Amino acid sequence: MRNLKLGMICQAIWAGTLIAATSVSLVYKRRWRLDGLNVPFFTYVLYNMEIILGLLNCTIVHICCQWKRPRYDNVLNQMVSILNEFGKFGEEQDLVWLRYQFSKYLLVGGFYFVVIVAVDATYYWKVIVSVCTTGAYFVPNAVQFLSLLQYAYVVIFAYRKCRAVNAILLAVRYSLRSNFKSYCSTIRTLRKQHMLLHRLVFQVNRDFGVLIILAVFSVLVAISITCLEMYQYTHEKTLNFSTIHYVIYSALWVLMYVCKLLIVLIPNHLMVNERDLTGMILQGLPLVESKEFTNETLKFSRQVLLQKGPYTANGVFVLDLTLLVHVSLLYSHYDHFS
């Protein structure tokens, strides 16, 4: 208990230090970017929104992580319970795979941030500007990236377990010949696990809903201002090393923002597809002369039917790849209007 309190105090101090450093950096960055410049009103609004959302994201991530601390234990207990049930079917490799994959994601993400910091430093060649850019942009984005990775870990875990449910159902489908009662307990267990997986994803979307909404809005604003800056910098200018350097720098930022969207959208998209596939597999089970088996499959089918539909971020928008299409259409219309 003492170690837990000490850890919470250390985390609170670390969070306060990061937020204070980010605030100071943002004040300087805002003055350096906006003061003394004849900036159009819309561009001025976007700059300020980007700055405010960056600080707000960093603050809310730390506050929510402390506020939702009991939910971590709840989610972990649900995952352990699901793993124990799947252990009966010999499915035990998911945590090893997830640990390996997310270690790679962390390494790739860390390397990518280092590359952007290096490109930023070589573009401005001013220590104070590079330090403030790191505090104003890299720190909030890194904190947000780590929080979204936690979210993606749980959803991908649920997706892989849902895929395991479908694999077992397919095995049952191809081996279903006789002794139907022996499969009833299997169907019953799979139905329970399928419901728990759906509930787990639903709960984690609710817990991370505010962070996801802020992340999406911050990405929209940041991509808008980055593309606008890129257009203003390269419009009617000769192609030289400085221009190419700036385009590469801006493209790296845009790619990072798109990746943050994909961290949220791809796991949900995979989970919805795999969850809906369960209904198709159940529909393909052969008709058998066993009332108990038929009742179990009907209950399972009814459950899957009630779970239809994509997941949402607190009901604000749908969490699947169609959101990325809508964002692309939004920017294409914006460019046409501009």
Describe this protein's structure:
The chain is mainly alpha-helical and 338 residues long. The protein is 85% helix and 0% strand. The protein contains 10 helices and no strands. The longest helix is centred in the middle third of the chain and has 49 residues. It is elongated, with a radius of gyration of 24 Å. The relative contact order is 0.10. Pfam families: 7tm_7. It is found in: Cell membrane. Belongs to the insect chemoreceptor superfamily. Gustatory receptor (GR) family. It comes from Aedes aegypti (Yellowfever mosquito).
List keywords for this structure.
mainly alpha, 10 helices, Gustatory receptor, single chain, 338 residues, cell membrane, membrane
**H and E string:** HHHHHHHHHH
Tell how many strands the DSSP assignment holds.
Answer: 0
Strand content: under 5%
User: What is the CA-atom radius of gyration, in angstroms?
Assistant: 24 Å
What's the overall geometry? elongated
Mean pLDDT reading: 77
Uncertain runs are: none
Percent helix, as a range, is over 70%
How far is it from the N-terminal to the C-terminal residue, by CA? Answer: 58 Å
Layout of helices and strands:
Blueprint (H helix, E strand, L loop, with lengths): L1 H33 L6 H27 L1 H18 L7 H31 L2 H49 L5 H27 L1 H26 L6 H43 L7 H16 L15 H16 L1
Give a concise summary.
The protein is an all-alpha fold and 338 residues long. 85% of the residues lie in helices and 0% in strands. The longest helix has 49 residues.
